[in-house]
Amino acid sequence: MTFLPPPPPFDLEIEDLTIGVPTSSGGLPILGKFFNKPAEDADGQPRAIVRDVSATCASGEMLAIIGGSGSGKTTVLNAIVGRLANLPIESGEISFMPSHRGINLSERKTLSARKMKDKIGFVKQQDTLLEHLTGKAEPTTRDSLRILAQRSLCVPRFLVRETLSYAAALRLPREISAQTRELIVTQTIEELGLRDVADTIVGGALRKGISGGERRRLSIGCALVAMPSVLVADESTTGLDSFTAYALLLTLSQLARRNRTVILTLHQPRSATFPLFDRILLLSKGRVVFSGPREKVLPWFQHVNEDFKPGDGVNPMDWLIDVSTVDTREGKEEESRERVGLLVRRWEEEGPAFVQPQEDDGERGSEEDEGDEGTLAVLSPPRRDRTSRTPLNASALEVASILSQANWDMQRIGILRQTAVLLSRATKDVSRNYGLMLAFTLQSIILGAILGFAFFRLPEDPSGIQSLKYCNTDLILFDREREDHLYAVFPWLVSEFCTNLPVLGISASLFALLIYFMVGMRSADHFAWAIGLFIAENVLVQLVIVGFALLSSSLNRVLDETEGPNTYPRFDSLLRPPVYINWMRFISPYYYGFRIVAISQFRDRTFACDGIEGLARNQCDGNQVLNGVLVSPTINPSYYLAALCGMVLVTYSLAGIILHVYHPGGVKHANQLFSSGSGKEAMVAADMEIVRQRIDVDVRHICLKWTRRGTEKTILHNINARFPAGEVTAIMGPSGAGKSSLLQLVAGRQMNAGPMARFQVEGAVLFNGRPRFRGFRALVAFVEQEDDHHLPALTVRETLRYAAILRLPKTMTRKRKIARAEEVLQMLGLTDCADNVVGGELLKGISGGEKRRLSLAVEMISDEPTSGLDALTAHNVMLALKAIAASGRTVIASIHQPRSDIWHAGIDNVVLLAKGGRTAFSCPKSEIGPLCASLGYPLPPMVNPADWILDLVSVDSRGDREKVTRKRVSLMIDNWAEREAKKVEDKAANRDSVQAPEGIVDYDGKAPVTVALPVILERMARNLWRQPPVFWMRLYQTPLLACIMLMIYQRLKYGPTGGQDRMGFVLEIISPLAFVGVLNNVAIFPADRDIFFHEVRTSGAYSASTFVLAFTIVELPLEIGGALLSAVVTNIGAGMQTNARIFFQFAFAQWALVSTGESIGMMFGSFTRSMGFNVSLVSTFITILVQLSGVVSVSLPKWLGILAWSTTLKYSTRIVMINEAVGLRLHCTDDEVMYGQCLVQTGEQLLELLGWKDWNVSKYCGILFAITVGYRILAWAVIRAKIASL
Q1: Residue partners of 621: CB distance under 8 A and separation at least 6
Q2: What is the rounded distance in angstroms from the CA atom of residue 1137 to the CA atom of residue 1146?
Q3: Of 53, 63, 66, which is closest to residue 11 (Cα–Cα)?
């Protein structure tokens, strides 16, 4: 990117910025805003996340925001780009100002982040891959502020080059040619070191792709190709090895020199990065410790106290973070708090004046100090003057001409080009998603076949005709998310519609054909006309449902709070709705769809009805049937088709308007919650030194390959390593070297290769010379890279206490377990955030570094335990791991960017991997120096050895440096392979002298149910109660649905439509309840499931039985309460026949259905984390159950009728319908009976029409209870089967 001219430059100014915390509220969400309480700190002052922050960063400068975990770095960055969600700005302002030379200060116009629009690029901490079509879709955003957000635009099925190409096409000005865009993409790939993976698929949760570090660089590349004037990056080097991180910072520094403004946060920068920054903003718990030019930061600290200076060979960046961070470990907290307090006070008093430029300051940031003697020459950048220019080629001159225009508001591609680009991207994504295509096809075939059997070859008699009237369909697709402000809403809507139309059209048509021929619909006459209408109706209703789903999700991004069309009334079952809602039928697709199907099947048709005489014969005349459902036989069905087409247009248009003007969702920030136990109670001995077995872990000839349809990729190649007990072994290497894969193999973790792919593993992992055995997981704890398995509404202290009670040996008392939790809390510096909620995807809680420490506190073997931590915290964490190892445990950690004191004090052994999973070193740390010297690369003095060896083993793919670095890496790999071969020969010669390994005593790590159940119950209940929207939704969702049905049906009448209305009413209040149970499950089960699966994988702390029992007990009161309230509304309020027995049986039937929905949600939700995909599958499954209930289809085949008795819907329907029908009398005139307007005159006739002969409600209640419990037992079995595969 440095060969291109810079975009228009802008200066950033932050002045006295104070950002408060969200106000706290309790109780019902609706009433929360009336009871908000201002948050206050210990001194009674309004609490703030950051207070009085001031900073500047001019164009051509790079600002580093540093500080300990929880210091407010990310909050400041979010404020800079205007993404504070529900955080209030109490005072101060952030502004941008054009910095063109020759413009008077009075003429420079100040701009806000919102007005900066596409001139800002923002890279957030995490790179979450975007899932498509199974539950989420591509971002839908305004064309304003260009942000690469927490969910990046890396599409799992795209190649790296394709991802950057589409990003460039959408983000760059329209005047830039396609050739120049490709040149920019190629240059970005080169400068970010992505050339080796340029044609590799990105991958995701269901398919292996590029590594985490490569994905991080790709996310940054998506921001860089836009050529933003201001680049804002939150922890841009987190997850990268020190070589790649330094190379990336060099690139950003060179971009800054080209008149860009670069602002970023860092956690563990290597010493060579210090000269790259022009300005430093140092924060401590939201307060400024320093803000000014980089060359004045160290003199400022010596001005405060002459002893405040880094020692010889100490990384100045690490030292700055250390000196400004409160060390909460025992014996150091008071001193560090006094020091930080002093630094904050002195800055407020003297700091701003100290950093003001003096007349003799001269030019800042001499270029001679870039790089250091410990950086390999191949990594050092060519020195150049800050204002120098590289000769421009034709493409660069083209960009220069564009950027030099007076109009700084460069226009991106227009609506038509946006539509073409998005259509191309969406089409390519969908066409490559073979799993989705297969899923849609199978869903259509299975659902069509089941429903076809439910209505199979309907007889031409009244019961068959009754079934034919209600043979109808619906499928659901949920569409959400928009955070990247790249294009207008209209192009996205068009691309999504055009891309999904073939898929939805084919699946709906296939479904319609199966139904048509299996049911035996009209074929003797008007066949082509009837089948054409039926297919068109299915496709259009499907498109309308998708439009309604999009409309719903445009208003609310939370899937479990967005029901969309699922609660939309089907007006085909209500003949005469109340006047005040009669208009609603015209906005229901079912109203039009029902009439299209009814007219196509019944108009001018006479059924055989052999043996049918009397009034029942009226139902054999198709026109009479239409009159009975108030459909005119003479109306042209094309009017209804036109209405459905109009609904498709209206729903998509309304969704587009809402998406353009309304932006709900986003991460909300949590308030501080104080647990009942403050942690200051009298402490007992913690028993920290629990005796554990000493276990040496050996990895022998491990090879890991990923294969898929003839394609093979080697991840690990012939790895041999030893991890001794009582020592800390670090696995190191560049991104893509296989560090995490090796660690997962050692820990026995299952890895997902993706659809139609698999991992091939060769070699062995031995524990004291013994292969893996049943129960070995109880001896292995594992800290994953991701920290998303904690319950979001629990505090840090509560999370750690629950983990201690569940995981520690049952021989320890509860008090000692809690005491140990408090000691670990203090050891890892978590006391300041101990009573803050953890937070999750939509609830911002503790910082990323604090969450990383929390994960480490719960486990004892770690995957990149220092990633995302500030330098001091990372040092303390490694010291804690060293102490853990000293007690006899084997500690293995993959580390990306270790500081020098971590290397010297925290690591005993090193396994160094090169890219491609090959071993460069695997030996004690003490042997590293001689090995490097023997290769001709001796360790330089005053240099971090960890940085040096990572530089040695990394390939610099930029320009002519690649050949030299590849040769060096190959030399290291070959040298170690020769050493390994010699070791094997020596070991074979001395085989007789080798001692037998120590045996392992099997250890059952599961907590007894008497210990685990109360803890899990308390944890689940507390997590649920602290999420008021979820808690109240689970309670009022069933009664709310009942209120909607009561509003539509009102009190049931006893006129000619009474029988038809009662059938529709029962169907409407019964059929959605299982889906309500699924939505209740989606709201809370995923978090509980994730932590349970995590605990099973890492320690097996408790059984599936305990988990399912606890979940059932927590949900039961809300289910029963909701069922009782719903029964009051529907059974009593709707005027149904009732008494005490009928009322409680009605409520019981509703509870059984909701509970069944929860059980089904647990079953499906256990096998995939995609809630949208689960909801789609479950809705299909429940649709089938509804068809088998015996109301929609009363002519089921015998074998399917037997199968239907295994569903709770059938029994619930019978309980409610029989209680309502027995003794019911309707009032019909002779004319109403003759013309088919009065279906039945008594409740008993209604039951006979349905073919029900057994009216024993008590028997049905008993069977219903047994089947409901059976579904929960089946859910337990499914979960147990799932954990067996983990």
Answers
A1: 606, 607, 1236
A2: 11
A3: 63
In total, the chain counts a number of residues equal to 1286
Q: 37: helix, coil or strand?
A: strand
Q: pLDDT digits over 1125-1146, tens only?
A: 999 998 888 888 889 999 999 9
**C-alpha dihedral sign at 577, 1237, 600, 461:** positive
Residue 267 corresponds to which amino acid?
H
Token pair of 900, please? Answer: 């020098």
DSSP 1130-1168: IIITTT----HHHHHHHHHHHHHHHHHHHHHHHHHHTT-
Phi and psi torsions of 910, nearest 5°: -135, 130
CA-CA distance, 438 to 763, in Å (whole number)? Answer: 35
Check pLDDT > 50 for residue 961: yes
- DSSP H or E run through 281: strand 279-284
Contact between residue 700 and residue 767 where contact means Cβ atoms under 8 Å apart: no
Report which of 1047, 873, 901, 1265 is spatially closest to residue 71, judged by C-alpha positions.
873
> Three-class SS of residue 733?
coil
Name the residue among 215, 191, 216, 190 with its Cα closest to residue 202. 215
Least confident of 245-254, 986-995, 1025-1034, 1262-1271: 986-995
User: Residue 1023 is inside which H or E element, if any?
Assistant: helix 1009-1025
Would you say residue 220 has pLDDT above 50?
yes
Q: For residues 246 and 252, what is the distance between their CA atoms, to the nearest angstrom?
A: 10
1002 vs 718, more confident: 718
Residue 578 above 70 pLDDT? no
How far is the C-alpha of 173 from the C-alpha of 195, rounded, in Å? 25
User: 119: left (phi > 0), else alpha (psi -120 to 50), else beta?
Assistant: alpha
Report how far Cα 542 is from the mean position of its chain's Cα atoms. Answer: 27
pLDDT of residue 538: 86
For tokens 């957000």, name the residue: 149
Q: Which of 497, 521, 499, 409 is nearest to 98 (CA)?
A: 409
What is the rounded average pLDDT of the residues 775-787? 65
Q: Which of 93-102, 577-586, 645-654, 978-987 has the lowest mean pLDDT?
A: 577-586
Closest CA to 1060 of 751, 630, 675: 630
Strands 918-924 and 909-914: antiparallel
pLDDT digits (tens, 9 = 90+) for 1155-1189: 998 998 898 888 776 665 666 666 667 766 666 66
CA 319/CA 638 separation, integer angstroms:
77
413 contacts: CB under 8 Å, gap ≥ 6: 169, 170, 174, 421
Q: Helix 160-171 and helix 415-432: axis angle, to 10°?
A: 160
Question: Average pLDDT of the chain?
Answer: 75
Q: Which of 560, 666, 563, 669 is nearest to 1086 (CA)?
A: 560
β-bridge pairing 279-284 and 287-293: antiparallel
* Sheet order of strands, 697-708 included: 711-723, 697-708, 758-767
Q: Specify the 3-state DSSP secondary structure of 683.
A: coil
Backbone angles phi, psi at 839, to 5 degrees: 85, 170
Residue with the bigger pLDDT between 31 and 194: it is: 194
- The rounded distance, in Å, linking the Cα atoms of 288 and 291 is 7
The whole-angstrom distance between residue 469's C-alpha and the CA centroid of its chain comes to 43
What's the confidence (pLDDT) of residue 26? 45
Structure tokens that stand for 912 in this block: 């160094």
pTM over the 0.85 mark: no
The whole-number average pLDDT for the span 1029-1054 is 82
- Tens of pLDDT, residue by residue over 76-85, are 988 888 878 7
Q: 1057, 58 in Cβ contact below 8 A? A: no
Has residue 3 got a pLDDT over 70?
Answer: no
Residue 1184's Cβ-side half-sphere holds a number of Cα atoms within 13 Å equal to 22
Q: Of 1079, 1184, 1187, nearest to 443 (Cα)?
A: 1184
**Could you give the CA distance from residue 663 to residue 555 in angstroms, rounded to a whole number?**
8
